[in-house]
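Q: I have 572 residues here and want to know how they pack in 3D. Can you give me a structure?
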Amino acid sequence: MSQRITGIGASAGIAIAKAFRLENPALDVEKKVVENPAQEVERFQESIEKSKNELEAIKDHAEKELGEDKAAIFAAHLLVLQDPELIDNVKKKINEKNVNAEFALDEVTGMFISMFENMDNEYMKERAADIRDVRKRILAHLMGVEFNTPSMITDEVIIISDDLTPSDTAQLNRQFVKGFATDIGGRTSHSAIMARSMEIPSVVGTKTITDSVENGTIVIIDGIDGEVIIDPTEEERSTYEEKRNQFLEQKKEWAKLVNERTVTSDDVHVELAANIGTPKDLPGVLNNGAEGIGLYRTEFLYMNRDQLPTEEEQFEAYKEVLSQMEGKPVVIRTLDVGGDKELPYLNLPKELNPFLGYRAIRLCLDQQDIFRTQLRALLRASTLGNLKVMFPMIATLDEFRQAKAILMEEKEKLQSENVEVSDAIEIGMMVEIPSTAVMADIFAKEVDFFSIGTNDLIQYTMAADRMNEQVSYLYQPYNPAILRLVKSVIEAAHKEGKWAGMCGEMAGDEIAIPILLGLGLDEFSMSATSILPARSQLLKLSKETIASHIEAILEMDSDQKVKEYVQEHFLK
């Protein structure tokens, strides 16, 4: 008899194959007194070098398959292997306590993991996960244990695991790995993001999948509706084979829309743009028919290196993106670090709550040499395409005015040096702080555009960290409180003749899309793989019809009621 388990659909698609349980061997550490500490230190160093070689190879593979921003996690792991605080402390413990390398490593990393996990911010918790992943790798080499890695899979399978580490996901071979299901995780976890990039059907957060599936059992992954069917009947298998065929046919239909404008059934045009991290993401943008780039996250230029990028390095990156987009709008966000994105070489102060701290525009206005270098590079590249500059994390009108004034100063300096600069650059801002959304009518008089960053706006409005599983139920994009803020931002922009876009996850969400259309959103920016499904959906929607329902939606008292209303009226 078949069994059905529900989770979170992290990457759309249907996969049918035998289960492959990805289980790591037990790495039980025993304390041993050693007579030759120098030999233990040497063993430890050899294991470090082997781990470095492995991670370099995984990082290179990830860059080619997934892009530079997705490979950044492995650069972070390599930094752990070079961290003197960790490495030197392990060697010191071996030498001073005459203990085996395994025990010393376990003790030292355990201390760091505990320290980071008890800090109340997501960046530090991810740092703990990085150390745990690296520790496992080094221990395996010290113990001579071989891991059952995804790279070794040579048959068509569906991976079943408690979780997939970034290392695991980067090694997935799409030829053989047809899908995966995990006990833990959410739509914004590393494995889910990578799965969507690779278009591998996946269901995460099932809680019990590893307790329910044996190796070799036939499994169906329904990444569309977030279900896993274990040992399906012939009838179920036939049903899902048909559903898979329908999905593949649907993808072929979507592909026909690559070169089409995005218009609704009542002939209203909205712009579908892509979010990118580096110029290497451009093929996906162009292949999926984006009408522009709604968010270029420039912080990836600054990460995984030991010093700030030069003006010339930045100019080349901006030039490549603007040139390849051939006049389509490109919204480039100025440096947004701090929070969960740390630059070790800046020696930023440790904060109890970095998401509410010294980050983004706050850092740039304080350290203007960094800001001015970036602005000069952007201005120099502005003649090569349709550049729009966007400032992140703006909380007050004075911050926006300061940032714009610095941009204008650098523009005048360049022009005095006879450097050509475009006169058509639009200057806008992210709306991701509730105070800004409430004051949108005031900001709208001075900005050229708004881009609503819903990932942060939702968690700040609901006072809930979206990565914290204990309060993740409060990450509610359809909550009327959020929708009312979005409405006020769009209306404020339109009143002043400006446009409003959205670059958070919500912009590509099939439940949110009809609501955002009805609210009058002008630009939807999303991951490249979401563009064609969104275009297809919008073609079938009437803005005028949905607009007549908006008042009723905004009067509802819960996220769930809004979702059910949209499903009933606009997703049939």
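Q: Anything worth noting?
A: The first helix runs from residue 37 to 66. The domain at 256-570 is CATH 3.20.20.60 (TIM Barrel).
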